[in-house]
Every structure is written in C-alpha cells, then in structure tokens.
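Name: Acetyltransferase (GNAT) domain-containing protein
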Amino acid sequence: MLRLQDLYLFNRPEFIAFQALPALHTLRLHQPRTDQVEALWHMAIHDQVGYSPWRATFGGPQFVATLPPPRLAELLQQGDALARHEKLRALVIRTFPAFYDPAGHALLTHALLQHGYALEATDLTYFLALRRDGFEKGLHTTGRKKLRRAERHGFTFHEEEPAFAPEAYQIIAATRQRKGYPVTLSEESLLAHLRALPDYYRLFSVRRSGRTAAVGLVVVISPSILYTFYVGDVEEFRTHSPAVMLYQGIYYWGVTKGYRLLDFGIGTDQTEPNEGLMQFKRMLGGEPSLKFTFRKDFHPDL
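Structure predicted for Acetyltransferase (GNAT) domain-containing protein:
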C-alpha cells in the first residue's frame, strides 16, 4: 500500500489542495484484492497539455516498491486514455531525482521509454547523505577554509520563525537578481506556503552580531529527504562565505531530526551545466544525480 506518510510532498493532498491547479486529474492504481492504492499520478491540464507537475520541483507517478512493471504500464495507459479523452497534444512529466529512490527511478524511466515517451531534458542535481559526522568529512579543502573563516569571525547558525520570511525573501530575491536567476516564488506566495504548510517549509539563517548574513528556505520532501529550495546571502558578507556555514547548519539540523538525504537542487540551467554552481556543490561534498523530463506527443486531430 502507498501510505500517506510515504508520499513526497508534491504528491500529498495538502500540497495539491493548496495549489491553484488548472483542471487537476489524479490517476490511481488499486491492488485488486484489497483495493489499496499502489500508485498515483497527479496531472494538471493547461492549453491541451497535461503537466506533472504543474508548479513544483517534480511530479510524475509515485508507486510502491513492489509494483511489478506490467502494473506500472497500466498506470501509464490510464494517462494515454485521459490524453485521448481530453484531446491533449502532449503529456509532460518531470521525475523525482534518481537518488531519492534509485530502483524506482530506474523502473519508471524504463517504463516511460517503453511506453513511447521521449527524453526532453536531462538535469544534474546534487545531494548529500546525512551522517552525524559527515559534513566536514565531505567538505573539500576550500570549503573547510571558508567554514573556519566564518567561525573565527563570529558567524552563527539559527533556525528561524515564519515571521522572518519577509527579510529572508528580500535577501533571496536580491541574491538571485545579482546572479541573473529568476525568482519563481513571490513573497506573497512564500508567506502563504509557510502559513498553509508550516510542517514542510523551514527557514534558517546565519548571523553575526544580530545581522543576517545568509538565509535558506528548506522543504521537507518526505520523512527521509530535505530539499534546499532557496539560498541567499548578503553581499557585504560574501567574503566570509556564510553559505557554507548555512549548509552545515541545515545538514546537522536534518541529522538531528532523523532525515537521511539533503537535496541541494540542480546544477544545470535549462539542462546546460552551470559550472560555478556545480563547483560550489561539489565543494560541499555533493554527489551528482540525474533528473529527467519526459514528453509524449499525441495527435488529437487525427
């Protein structure tokens, strides 16, 4: 059975209910004897295209580890039937990163390719396995120097309350603007997420003498996985590299809370390698993993 607590956040009912989704459809596979759910797949339809996810880091089918390949094919056939009924032009699926569930990712990738989906985009994402003594061991020499420098200059890590969100947002937005990245979440949307999903969105900071130097927005993906959604730093403190201490603090917060993996997010920009970002994540000890986007075209007018 696919238990509620095992669902990734972006498949959970409270997240789906919170989103302003166009024409949402949820496909399910039920175990024939018990009627328990073995797999589900949320899809939002817009402009004759079915998207999974609509606005989230990833989507696509989620299923129990014991699901046989023919049963997964049945779920994909449900998707085809929906596409034909709604006269869709295409279905687009952005899958979870491979390191979340290597066996499940391999099974899903194979099933999609066998079922006529084409690989539309390939991204690299980075992660760390969370261990009690693991962060400093994984840091490259440059990272250790940056961390020690921040410690010597009196920087400290903090978990923040939701009231910190406006300040955090301004720092994140300024950082992304400085680097030429879009901000896909508005301040109003961030505040709404924190109010509606307080158990899944967490804010952290690094400070010196009460002044904020770096901030992080972390998303709880599942009982075992954390995801650093946004990170920002204040320009005047950049020479002290407070972001390294921020990641260290998030890492050990995750260890203390019993999480197993920390997702650093992608190191590519529209599939093209972002060398500076990838170098930073490697410096932190991040390991690369693949993340795919698939597309299947239909011809509703034929």
